[in-house]
Specification:
The protein is of the alpha+beta class. The chain has a domain at about 5-115: Gcn5-related N-acetyltransferase (GNAT) (Aminopeptidase, 3-Layer(aba) Sandwich), CATH 3.40.630.30. Helix content is about 35%, strand content about 30%. It has six helices and eight strands. The protein has a four-stranded antiparallel beta sheet with strand order 1-2-3-4, sandwiched between helices.
Length: about 170
């Protein structure tokens, strides 16, 4: 399986939204416990319109992971904050999430950012730890779910840059 990372385009919004919603619904049961109210609260802002807004905001860095031409992952950061990193259920444990993180880290390093921060779900905590993130504070609760603040120092010399939309 070959994963490619590229800058997200506004035309990707519906596919990105689908990946994010499926990832939350199908992979994050440790967080929402399949409780309809918690799941609904988490998914409430995961709409195509909001995805388009995230992609259009100039301060955001938005990337997608593709396998065989299909979007299977989405990463979103803003300055030193990783806001979203989701993958389709069928590509879990296949390096897609790691590829998204590496691209965000490379982008941050190229922008002179020395440390990235995020709030991890229970589901993603082990993934972030495997990729060098460490807890930085106590668990916070939002929408009835826990988030663990984490951070990671990033390398000064990025070796990876995603291709622009419309690949050369």
């Amino acid at each position: 399986m070959h994963t490619s990372i590229r800058i997200a385009a506004i035309e990707d919004a519906a596919a990105i939204c689908s990946v994010v919603r499926r990832s939350i619904s199908e992979c994050c049961g440790d967080d929402h416990h399949n409780e309809p109210e918690l799941l609904e609260a988490w998914l409430k802002n995961k709409t195509v319109a909001n995805t388009e807004a995230w992609l259009s905001a100039p301060e955001n860095y938005a990337i997608v992971a593709e396998v065989d031409g299909s979007i299977v992952g989405f990463g979103l950061s803003q300055s030193e904050e990783i806001l979203l990193c989701y993958i389709a259920p069928e590509v879990r444990h296949k390096g897609v999430g790691k590829s998204l993180l590496r691209a965000i880290e490379a982008h941050a390093a190229s922008a002179g950012i020395a440390e990235l921060h995020l709030e991890s779900t229970r589901t993603a905590e082990a993934f972030y730890r495997r990729n060098g993130f460490e807890p930085t504070g106590p668990v916070v609760v939002a929408f009835g779910m826990e988030g663990l603040p984490m951070s990671k120092r990033v390398a000064a010399n990025p070796s990876f840059q995603p291709t622009a939309y419309g690949r050369s």
